[in-house]
């Protein structure tokens, strides 16, 4: 009898982290029914019409292939309307989304997914496991944004669906765009060839001033308020260590060709302390310890007026490297000799490259992309970071992955209450290290 996924050998989960740059080219295996039979038009559906979803649709429609957006889905009518107007102003000839294929509500995804060949899953990440599972069930090619879940049960759901996607030869690209960025790809080739030796330590950062706040309005239910302010609630966002910092932690895992076996660290609410900021921390500082004893330090914070830093550095036995999303890559040995300095000019937009490569494979009927394993690994590494800072404990990978603590509401409806509710002053319970149970 097959064991439950949370009891399986965890090493199976990690095999794909050894894949090389970006697309993790599996093979040119022909796809059965890559898109609509008898038509050279690839039909796409957008699930989640916020800014990132609209951006993903923009990038998909900007590819050289014959695409049409045929369905849109969002929890909110105004978000769908805004996205539709924005996309129509640029891609009128590629828009075929009449009112009857514009779906609104928690179940909108169920109506949109069946209508397309390729689905773009770009809602807040708490919904990603549910939507991914349905897209795989419906045999769709998939682009989905990072992170891929917000808790251990969600990660297990994603991993189970990923196995089905592989069996069905469904391409899945995940929006960890550094994997598709030229400076990272070129650097990783050199690191894998031993240019700076074995990686023994590193530092990864996402320090910035934070994001938007959407004030509570009259007659909003609690569910609508949290959905509108999804970034500040863990069932929707996972905290910014998961939603944003996953990019940098993913590079740590990529360069180490694995995942941390344990994580410890600290965090708090030091600057964003009011009721407008939900439950998340505004700073996290953690240590990721890998199986070979290497330790990578991770730091992310949302403070106003600070020096921003979003990049990664790593030290090997023979040299060191600096990387950033601004196309920089500088590799030196310990005598100061420059081993590689990436040319920052003329590099392709990695957000666009993700879609160019995905739709190239789909148009040719090829199976090339299975990004889910490394995306789930890095997402869960970030989740464990939150577990560590919230609890004040050292969190071990296997124990955390087996956790059955779900953050998701029991019911999705506008009159349903999320699990986390405010007190009479409008303040939300905050994790207290030493007291809060996370796994």
UniProtKB/TrEMBL annotation:
Q: Which GO terms describe its molecular function?
A: nucleotide binding
Superkingdom of the source species: Bacteria
Q: Which SUPFAM superfamilies match?
A: Glyceraldehyde-3-phosphate dehydrogenase-like, C-terminal domain, NAD(P)-binding Rossmann-fold domains
Q: A Pfam family this protein belongs to? A: GFO_IDH_MocA_C3
Tell me which residues make up the Gfo/Idh/MocA-like oxidoreductase N-terminal domain. 42-168
Q: Could you tell me which residue ranges the GFO/IDH/MocA-like oxidoreductase domain spans?
A: 185-321
**Record Gene3D superfamilies:** Dihydrodipicolinate Reductase, domain 2, NAD(P)-binding Rossmann-like Domain
Q: Which InterPro entries match?
A: Gfo/Idh/MocA-like_OxRdtase_N (IPR000683), Gfo/Idh/MocA_oxidrdct_glycsds (IPR050463), GFO_IDH_MocA-like_dom (IPR055170), NAD(P)-bd_dom_sf (IPR036291), TAT_signal (IPR006311), TAT_signal_bac_arc (IPR019546)
Under the heading PANTHER family, the entry gives:
BCDNA.GH03377, OXIDOREDUCTASE FAMILY PROTEIN
NCBIfam families in UniProt: TAT_signal_seq
Q: What is this protein called?
A: Tat (Twin-arginine translocation) pathway signal sequence
């Amino acid at each position: 009898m097959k064991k439950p996924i949370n009891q399986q050998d965890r090493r199976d989960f990690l095999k794909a982290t050894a894949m090389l740059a970006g697309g993790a080219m599996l093979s040119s295996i022909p796809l059965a029914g890559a898109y609509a039979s008898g038509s050279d038009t690839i039909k796409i559906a957008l699930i989640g019409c916020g800014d990132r979803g609209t951006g993903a649709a923009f990038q998909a429609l900007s590819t050289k292939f014959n695409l049409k957006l045929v369905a849109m889905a969002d929890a909110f009518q105004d978000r769908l309307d805004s996205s539709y107007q924005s996309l129509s102003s640029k891609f009128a000839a590629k828009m075929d989304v009449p009112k009857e294929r514009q779906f609104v509500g928690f179940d909108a995804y169920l109506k949109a997914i069946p209508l397309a060949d390729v689905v773009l899953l770009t809602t807040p990440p708490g919904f990603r496991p549910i939507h991914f599972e349905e897209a795989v069930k419906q045999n769709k090619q998939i682009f989905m944004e990072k992170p891929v879940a917000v808790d251990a049960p969600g990660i297990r759901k994603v991993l189970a669906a990923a196995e089905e996607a592989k069996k069905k030869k469904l391409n899945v690209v995940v929006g960890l765009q550094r994997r598709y960025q030229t400076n990272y790809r070129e650097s990783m080739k050199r690191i894998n060839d031993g240019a700076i030796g074995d990686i023994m330590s590193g530092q990864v950062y996402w320090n910035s001033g934070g994001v938007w706040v959407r004030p509570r309005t009259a007659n909003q239910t609690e569910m609508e308020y949290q959905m509108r302010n999804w970034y500040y609630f863990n069932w929707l966002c996972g905290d910014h260590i998961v939603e944003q910092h996953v990019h940098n932690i993913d590079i740590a895992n990529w360069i180490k060709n694995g995942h941390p076996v344990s994580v410890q660290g600290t965090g708090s609410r030091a600057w964003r302390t009011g009721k407008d900021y939900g439950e998340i921390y505004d700073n996290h500082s953690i240590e990721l310890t890998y199986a070979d004893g290497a330790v990578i330090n991770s730091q992310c914070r949302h403070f106003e007026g600070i020096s921003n830093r979003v990049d990664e550095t790593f030290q090997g036995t023979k040299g060191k490297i600096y990387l950033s999303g601004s196309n920089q890559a500088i590799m030196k040995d310990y005598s100061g000799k420059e081993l590689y300095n990436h040319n920052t000019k003329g590099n392709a937009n990695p957000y666009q490259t993700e879609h160019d490569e995905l739709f190239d494979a789909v148009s040719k009927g090829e199976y090339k992309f299975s990004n889910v394993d490394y995306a789930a690994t890095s997402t869960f590494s970030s989740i464990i970071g939150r577990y560590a800072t919230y609890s004040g404990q050292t969190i071990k990978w296997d124990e955390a992955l087996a956790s059955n603590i779900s953050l998701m509401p029991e019911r999705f409806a506008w009159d349903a209450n999320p699990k986390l509710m405010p007190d009479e002053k409008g303040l939300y319970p905050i994790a207290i290290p030493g007291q809060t149970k996370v796994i």
